[in-house]
Every structure is written in structure tokens, then in C-alpha cells.
Protein 1
Amino acid sequence: MMRSGAGLWQMAWGLLPLGIVLVSRDRFTLSILAVASTQALYVVSWDVLSGSGRISLGHALPFGCGAYATALVSGWGLVPPAPAIAVGALAGIAAGALQAALGARLPRIGLAIVTLAVAECAHEIAGMLQIAGPGGLVIGEEAGVTATVFPADETAAARLAAAALTVAVIGVLWMVRSRLGLAMRTVEADDRGATASGIDVTRIREVAFVIAGGLAGLAGGLAASLAGRAAPPMLSLEPSLFAIAAAGIGGRGSIVGPALTAFAASAALQWFDLPVMARLALYALVLIGMELTASRGRRRRDARLHPLREDGAR
Amino acid sequence: MEAAFQLLIGGTLTGAEYALAAVGMVLILRVGRGVNLAHGAFMALGAYLAYQTSMSGRSIFVGAVPAAAAGLVLGGVVERVLMRPVRGGPLARAVVLLGLGILAEEGFLLVWGDSPHSVPFRLAPLLVGRMVINTDQAIGVAITAALLGTMALGIRTRPGLALRAVIANPEIAELSGIDVGRVRTITFAGGCAMGAVAGAFLSPLLTISPTMGGGQLALTLAMVLVGGAGRIGGILAASLGVGVASTAVGFYLTPAWSDILALLLVAAAIVSHPQGTRGRCR
């Protein structure tokens, strides 16, 4: 259990994005910060899942499902724009539940590939999806589905997104300190030990998937509302890699670190207007660098614990 | 009915060519203990090199030679520089290889641009009754069969025994004097070369673009996982089956559906046989 002082500091850091949004006045900056807040919320959702010891390579699935659900219900005028974002969160929960049903019992590598395959499937289908939009127009395919833009002005949009991020960070930090959070951390540290302690490991992982899916769906719904569109790239590999890279730099499982890293990185990437391929290459370099750095640490630990073992045999 | 037979022939030939890439992936999975998520990039590299040689009027079989050489050299370098230092299990290796695959796409974009390319068939097709057999593909399948046959014989030699020992138990193999690291490097390089050669053979059937590796990876992975990572016979059968199915789906629907089919097969195979991705011996 973390000390309460450390928890207060974490919460204080979690308020930083909202503070930056509240003091910003420039409309361009606010529009960048709004998107950065949704991206940070999305990365927090990935970090919740990784906190249960599961690495998803297809976390874009709940994000994209949330975006599409929000765009469909708000674009059609079935639901007012604000509740449409909640519909996005529900769609994210459903996508998270699907990932849990498929992958909660799988080994880590199996889960990673299954989540990647299912998200890529959804990405391909979204690229071909044709839907009758309002006024009888056929919408969809690569252009995506239009959503009602909400909130219309940049200040309100940035404040809404930053407030959602802040509430999510505080809520997740509270959850980490609850019995559920303790169980998740135990499962992450040692799933066999957790089973021996009477924890239902599969159940805990399923709950983590559902919570992470809900938060990712909320982020997707917000992203679609802010952009006025849900498009196939929201389901592509890029958002999934962004989450892994940001969480890796910010400190996996620490919630606030990944959130702030994602907030800063997303703002910087928008500011420099990097093309998608360059972003992907950047994320790929971060992933490779992250694993090599982590491996160096593991090798040092192995050398300390098993000094007689040779490298090649492992 | 005729169209169905034609699809069956075309799909079987295509699946047989994919078998080379699938067996290469299995070698890496079992010896290197990692899912090569960059395998599609090596196939794309082979396809690009075949395209480059076809520009000077040569056939894909000439292009397969530089593809094999590039696969061997780059695969060896990747194993030594990226795979060997990685600790943390198959997932850590898979993540590094996924990153490498993405970097390769960027490399293809820089060298060959983002516009799609195609490679023509050079030889006239064979007519058997009313069925058309693509001669380039038939030769590709014959070379694939010869390569896989040579490999099957090679498994029974002394270096093949070392390979099997590393698969069975790397620590005991090390104790027996086998250089496990070297066996892994050679196997990884060989597996990548097989992927690149398969990419060269398949190049006339594919739209060559920087992002083509994703679809190739999905199909190859589907063949490996459906066939079972420990059974070469199963992989060959799965290659033919998946090849026919994806060709039929691509013909009756759109090519994107054949990617979706492959991805669904990957997910279904892992969910039904979770240990398959670990490359365990069976």
C-alpha cells in the first residue's frame, strides 16, 4: 500500500493537465490540449489493464468502438451529444468484455496477439463499413462516420476533456488503493501466488479489461465528439502503440506518469504535426528502446541471482 | 464449377508458396522462442527485391536470390543485435519485432515510395484441359518443395540434431557443447530468408506497398497457428487450406476480407490452443 503522502502528490500531479487547460487562453493551444487530454485518458485506460499484468496490443478496439458508437448515435440525432459520449463508454465496456472473454485466460503472448488480431479485424471492417447516414447519404468507409461536434467552442472542449482526464486519474488512483487494486497488483506481481491466496485471477483480469475498456470507450467518445468524426485510424495500430510507448516512458502501472507523458507527447506531436508514418516509426523506436533497456535491467538481476548461468542458455 | 476448380488450383499453389514463409516462422518460433511479428516485413522485402529485378526484365526467381541473401544477412543482424540482448520472454521479443516491422515499413516508404508496385508473370500459362495453371507459380511451388525437402533431410544431419536439441532443451544442449546462440542466429537468419524468398515468389500476386507486410504476416501466422507450431505436416496442410480459403474469399468478396479471415483464424487458433504461441515441442 502506498503512503497517503505519496498518494496526495500523485493526485496533485494528476491535476496538472486541468491546471494547464484552465490557464490557457489561445484557441489553437486549447484545441491541442483537448485532444491531448483524451489521448492521456486513453493511455490511463491502457495502464489500468497493464496493472493487472496483461499487455494488450489492440487497445485501439475499445477506443475505436467508443468513437464509432458516439458518432453513430450523435450523428443520427438519437441521443444528445453529451449522453452520446456515455454511449461510447458503454461500447468500450462491451469491447473490453469481448477482449476479456477471448484473452483473460491466455498466456501473455497469446493475449497480445489475439487483441492485436481482433483490433486489426475491426480496423479492416471499419474501412469497408457503409452506413446510411442522416438524409439518406451513405457514409463510412475511409472517411468515417460524422458525429455532432460537442462542445462547439475550444475552451469548453478542452475543459471537458481535461476534467474527464482528472476525474479518471483520481478515480483510478482511488481504485488502486482499494481491495480490487490490491488484488490487481497481486495478480500482476505473481498470478500463481495470487491464486494460492484465494484471488480469482481470471475474474480480476476480466474486471480490469472491462474498466480499461470503459475508460478507453469514454476517451474514444470524447475524441469523436471533439473531432466531429469517428474514422478507421482510431481502430488502427497507431493508438495502441502510442499507449504502450507513453505508458513505457511514464512508468507502467503508475497511472499518473503515463497520463502526463501521453498529455505532453500528444500535445508535442500535434504541435509539430508529424505524419502518421513518422509517428509510428517514433513509437516503434520507443518500444524497441524500452524493451532493450528493461532487458539490461533483467540481465543484471539475473547475473546477481544466478551468477553461474550463461547468457546463451536462457 | 469451373471457377471453383480454378480457384482451388490457384489457392493451392498460393498456399504452397506461403508454406515456405510459414515454416520459416515456425523455425523462429521454436528455436528462437519468439513470434516473429516482423516476418511480414521480410516477405515485403523479398517482394520489393523481386520487383526491383523485374524492372530489369528478369524473372522473380532471379529476384529470389538477393531476397534470400538480404533475409539471411538482415535476419542474422537482427538476431544478434536485437533478439539476443532481449530478456523478458516471448512477449518482449514479439514487441521488439513488431517495432522492427514498423520501422521496416518506414524504410520501404523511403526507398520505394508510397505508390503501389506490381510484378508481372514472365512465363506463358499452362493449359490443362480448360484449367489454367500459372507457370511461374508452379515453378515457385517446385522450388519451395525442393527447399522444404532439403530442410527435412537436413534435420536428420548433425547440425539438424543440434537444432532439435536446442528446441527440446537449450540448457542441456549448451551443456552438451552446442553453441545455442549460434544455432539461434542461424535459424533466425534462415527463417527470415525463407520469408523473403516466399515474398519474392508471391510478388506477382500481391500489390507491393510499404504496408503490405501486415496482411502477409496475418496469413502466415494463421497458417502456423492453425497447423500447430510443432507439426510441419500440419503447417503444410494449413498453408494449403488457408491459401485456398483466402483466395476464394478474396475472389468472391474483396481482398480485404481475406486479411480479415486470416486475422480471425489467428485469434480463433490462439483462443482454442493457447500454448501454440509458445512454440512448445509436441
Protein 2
Amino acid sequence: MKSSFKLPPVVKDFPLTLLVLLLVLFFSPLFLAPNIRKATGLKEQIDKERERLSLLSQKLADLQNLSEAELVDEAKLLTEALPADNDFYQSLTVVKKIFADNGVTMDSFKFSPGEVSTQAAVLGSNKAQGKIEYQVSFSSSFESFANFVSAVEKTLPLLEIESIKFNFLGTASSSANLLSFEGVLGLRSFYSPLPSTIGKIDSPVPKVNNQERQLIEDLRTYSRVQEASPEAPVVIGRENPFSI
Amino acid sequence: MKEEINLITEQIRKGFSLLKYKKKINLLTGIVAFFFIIACTGTLIAIFLLNQSWKQTKQKISLVEGQIKSLEKDESYAVVVANRVAAINSILKSRQSFAETVSSIKLLFVPNFQLSSLEVAANAGWRIIGSCSDLQSLNKFYEIVEQLRLNPKFAKMSYPSVSKDIENGIYHLTLELRELK
């Protein structure tokens, strides 16, 4: 019995062409397209990685240009200017010293107890820059007080006079320097916790611009009130990079 | 008639037969097959090379990251310095200098003018309460206030108010130098 199925003439005439066409049609979506997609994806990844490498190389070059000694010195100065902790005692010590140095008598001081730091407060959510506000009653001659005000503005840690209220004692005379008076001074000291991380590895090294460099130089001219520092603690385990 | 139609149909079929272009079609098929093979091989080679390049880039990144980590301490100091400088800058920008204010206060020590209270608050101006018994002292005080107003710092300020205690012949002065909005 003969089969009635007949191949179309095109198949008989162009078997190779048809085979090639079939192979191309079959392998294109199965092999070629995924590979092209993979190659394109790889290229994109490589471009991204190269960009990252360039950033990292730049960062490495920046880090290699830094002088550790200079940075330690600057970090120490700046942390002295703006302490990391909410330390009321230190602020009061500084103010007392400026008062004493300029011949102004501190009669009393008043502050809000809720603002004195505790270990918990430092470790808690209080990560932003903070202020300690207090009021100091004083008595002084005018000239001593003027010197005191200038000294407050040129002393580390930074202090800010918020208000001055004078209650004059003596009758004004032509010799103002001899005038003695008493008053109340509103003062503010500042603190700001140190950053807890140095950020992502590919984030650029923070740089100090010329204006900020000038600020650091200006701060060097300020008088520094330092407490006697306790002995350095023994470091066990990994060293804290933020400890100054 | 039917035969004629069949003949014409046969002639058309032969005339348009692909057999006539067999060589060209085979050549075209060869070219397609060649390029297809080239494309397949090319993508494989490209993937291989890209993989190599990716590995090399990763290796370089690991190397640089290691070097950066070894300089972590320097970086932490740089971060601290930048953080502190920014914070200090902002404090100093907002901090009002009282040195000039205090030297200006000296001007207010007018003979025969009794200053009973003087308040100076940052960014809020002055509040002065005083008294005197003669008009001359009061005028002198006003002159000094005018001098203060020449200072750009106090230029935008309102005038003082004065009341007179007629019974006792004393002028009470409350001066609030506040910035005009």
C-alpha cells in the first residue's frame, strides 16, 4: 500500500536551507538570546564594578594622603571644642575657671537637673547635638565683666552667652570702670555625640574645605580649659577607631 | 481551452520556481549558517572574557578594600574631624557675640541716670529700665541711644518710652530696643 503523503516540492528542492532555518529558529531563543542577555548583564555589572573600583581607588588615594598625626591633633582639638558627652560638671568647671581668671565672682548657679547626662542618656536616642543651659549669678566690676565676656567667646569648650541681666548696685558715675554690679548670666554649652560608624566603604573620605581649615586654625588660638585626664584605660580586644 | 490554461499555469509555475534561484538560496543559507555559528561562538567567547574581566575587577576591588580597611583608623579620624567641624561651624554661625554689646553698654553709664535693670538677650535686643530726676540727664541718655542706633547692629530698632512721675519729679524710662520685623 502506497502512502498518499507527499513532501511539498520546496522541501525536496531545498532540504539544507530548511534545516538551517529550523536550526536558527530553534537555537536562537534557546541558546543565542539567553547568552546575549547574560553577556549584556555581565557587561553592566562590570561597568558598575569598575565605577566602584574607581571610587575606591580615589578613596584609597585620599586616605593615603591623610596625615594621621595631623588628624589626631585636629580631632582632639575639635572634640575639646565640642565634647562628645553631655557633661555638666566639665562645663561648670570651665565657666568657673573663666570667672576666676577674669576676677568675676560666681555667686550661684542654676540648671535644669533633667539635662545632666547619665550613661543611659548618652547611650539612648540622644544622638543629635545638644545644649546644656544654665544660669549663673555673678558680681563684678564692669571691666572684669567685659573681659569675661571676651574670654567666653574665645575659650574651648565652646560656650554661648544667651542673655545678660544686670542689676546695678552703684550710682553711675563718669568712671564706669569702677562701677560694680551684679547680674544673672544665661549660658549655654554644647555637646554632640561622635559618629558611631564611618559609613559605607565606598563613601568618599570627608574633606575639610579651606573655610573649615581656617576655622580649625582659629580654634587653635582659643584658650583651652582642660581637666586633669585620668590614666588611659587598657584596651582589650579590637580597638575602637573612634576613641580619641 | 482547459489545456491552454494548464499550459499557462505550468509556464508561470516554472517561471517563478525557486529552482531558478537555487544557487543563490544555497549561498544565502550558507551565509546565514556561517553568521549564526559566528554569533553563537562569539557570545560564548564574550561571556568567557567578560567573566574573566569581572573576576579581575572583583579581585582588584577586594585588594583596594583591604587597603582601605587597613587605613580605617585614619578614616575614622577624618569622619570625626568633618563631623565636628560642621557642628562647630553651625554653632559659631548662630552664636551672637556679646563683646560688642558689653562695650556698648558702657555708653549707658550716664551721670545722674540711675539704671535699675538692663537685660540683653541673644537675637532679642535690649531692655533697659532706669530713672533720672532731671531732664538734662534724660536728654543725655537719648543722645546715647541715638549713638547706639547708628551702629548697624541696632539700626532697626524701635524707640524708647518715657513716663514722668510728676509728684516726685522723676522720669521713668523703659527702653526696649528690639529688631523691627
